[in-house]
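S1.2 Input.
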Amino acid sequence: MNWSFVIANAITLACIYGTLAIGISLTWSSLGLVNMAYGFVFALSGYGAWLFSQHVASFAPLVMAAGILTGALGGVLVCALAFIPIHDKPNFPLRGLIATLAISLIGNQALLWQFGPRAKSLPRLFGTWNVNIFGVVLTADKLGAIVSAIVLLSLVLLWMRSSRRGLEIRAMMMNPHAASIVGIGVRSTGFAVMALTGGLAGLAAVLLAQTYYVAPFSGITPMVKGLSIALMGGLGSVPGAVIGAAILGINEALTSTILGGQYVLITQFLLIIVILLIRPRGIAGILDKAREA
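S1.3 Output.
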């Protein structure tokens, strides 16, 4: 077995899927919304980056920025359609889940109608070189994905710790009811959260498109994996999402190498079931008493 290849794949997948899982966890912990439209935002971001590379410029930072911006706009659209109208209505978690699922289905069909079923490819944003780090060979796309994900997540966490809006989001994550009592606007914070998590989906879309392609339904599998990681780590827990991403990244890399890619989802869900049987709240999950009340 080529352990260098397995380790490189595991680290890359953990960074990309961890980005998605953190976005899902942030949305749940702050808004109480399981965003099933995340896959649509992912695919929309890929097409935004592709259109920019085809008609404006193929310069890597600009293409990446176009994908992130498209994802942020997609998140704002989902917020306007699925959160703002119903966030104060009874059974909001269930209504929100159904609304975002409907947006995902309609949005994916709209992308299929607009761009057709043929997959699109993004230009090589990081070049074709490779580097050997302690015996682990990392190609340009893998190392670029790892560094980009770590840098953006670090900036997001720094922004959440230092900016007023970021502190409001953290307050919503800790106790949404108390946050609203002290004057934190639920709707304005909702738009900020959805734009932020949409941007994370946009980054993941651009990074994964370096290995795969952009297609109308290309966001479904990443969304399932991101949601799985968030559940395994514990919805609402950013450290749990990071740990879950590392575990599933290693699992996917090993399964692809030993058994084949067709068995990845099977082994992933078996692993998730085992972990949730041992820890029903996830690896580092928190139970939101305020939201339950």
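S1.4 Remarks. The first helix runs from residue 3 to 31.
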